[in-house]
Amino acid sequence: MNNSKSNKVAIIIGAGPAGLTAAYDLLLKTDIKPIIFEETNAIGGISRTVNYKGNRIDIGGHRFYSKHSSIVKYWLDILRLQNKPAKDDLILKRDITMLKKQILKNNKIYSYTDGDPEQQDLVMLLRNRISRIFYKKHFFDYPVTLNFNTIKNLGFFYLISSAISYFKIKIKPIKKEENLEDFIINRFGEKLYKTFFKDYTFKVWGKECKGIEPSWGRQRIKGLSVKKTITHIIKNIFKYKGKYHKKVETSLIGSFMYPKYGPGQLWERMVDLIIKQGGEIYFNHKVVSVFHKDSNVAGVDVLNSGNSKTKRINGDYFFSSMPLKNLILGLTPKINKEIRSIAGGLMFRDFIVVGLLLNKLKIKNMSKIKSINNIIPDNWIYVQEKNVLIGRLQIFNNWSPYLVKDEDSVWIGAEYFCNIGDKIWEKTDRDLASLAIEESVEIGFLEKKDVLDSIVIRVPKAYPAYFGTYNKIDKIYKCLEQFENLFPIGRNGLHRYNNMDHSMMSAILSVQNIVNGKKSKRNIFTINMEEDYHESVPEQGKYE
Hints:
- By secondary structure, the protein is of the alpha/beta class.
- Among the domains are: 9-41 and 283-345 and 469-525, FAD/NAD(P)-binding domain (3-Layer(bba) Sandwich), CATH 3.50.50.60; 141-237, no CATH class; 348-464, Polyamine Oxidase, Chain A, domain 2.
- It is built from 20 helices and 22 strands.
- A seven-stranded mixed beta sheet has the order 9-8-18-19-20-17-21.
- Helix 1 (17-29) runs parallel beside helix 11 (263-276), helix 5 crosses helix 6 (156-171) and helix 6 (156-171) crosses helix 7.
- The protein starts with 8 loop residues before the first strand and ends in a 19-residue tail after the last helix.
């Protein structure tokens, strides 16, 4: 690209991580002006932070880590990396020096303006991840490991039967993994699958593992297995000094960065930078139609919810993080009937989080890990009790002490996975709060008298589903190749259960394709399909 002003415009649909990264990257690397249209009045999509009376909720929980140095550099260009103790570090006398050195060195980043979270707001904290499974009123390591704690909680005979089940599948594995059940059994054995995966997966997706594509496991569980978890434990015991994050399975990553006031803080700051550099963003503006001609998208119709008027907006490039289903069905003129049918069959899982402000937790911290007021130290807990609908519990105090207005209170999130129209989705906020309290009492986490306040947040289309017509999604990707200036990005834009860094990567690669004049979108469509996203780790922020 030359340095002269081209007056070219990029229309970006959605102000989540992918859409905002696309706009920011365009401003950094091109002379193309980004204009963002966001359907809601919120920034960050599912990665936003909700501020309720000074107590902040992280929707779904977002750890900031990546195998790509360039993604980490993006974050640290926007928020300063913690260099001095945070509030809880001071109280618990934690040393962050080694963790900081490890993160910087292994991401090939050596110098940054350091932040003091006690004095500054735009700071990226250094955090340790702790997440466990709660099953039969006991805590188990996540991911599942056959260690002393597991043996103690489930019993020696369970260990023997699990080991037999595991070695049996190793001797005679399922040759063709046709569904998620096959995938998990091949890696953990049938006994562990039935204990820790079968029922919980149904709770999350509302569907049996047999009805879910194995590709979900390949993305979310990746190469994790009993063998790898045991190896991981042994290496930790001997203080293994391997490269941080790069050689560790995603599910085993034990530390991460985190914005002082939650993930939304980073995206809100990015919006400020986008506007300052000449980009535009319009909230409560929904793209309802996408017009194309001669293998290019020409414009979009945008509905302004404020005045209910629709306006045609033309552009040169188009980035879509709207649900892939909506994009395909919104293309005008209508495209191939088969592709529209496949798009119509793409499905989602919706999500509700109930924030509960407490005087204290009833459940005690029996671990060796120190925490403020000695609350259990977990970031989140996978609740696998069959008698409750809660899928996960977050403890926001442990993500960042600055998410909680009063450090003597406990701020938790009870998460429910559902579908729009379900009985639970249709409950009133009051009834949902009562349900979350009753179920938390039932599993022994709190007492009703300690509840001070609550809030209910509903998140539609939170998780792209790996059933319905997902097994035919490659036909949609192939169809989209014909539109040279259209770039589907992000979790919903690609209909893939991506992490935040994958969503950012889809935007960065799209911009790079424009800069390089690359027409194929294969590098976008294959992000997170294999362990290294089908991409080699680029040097100096370049993605080829």
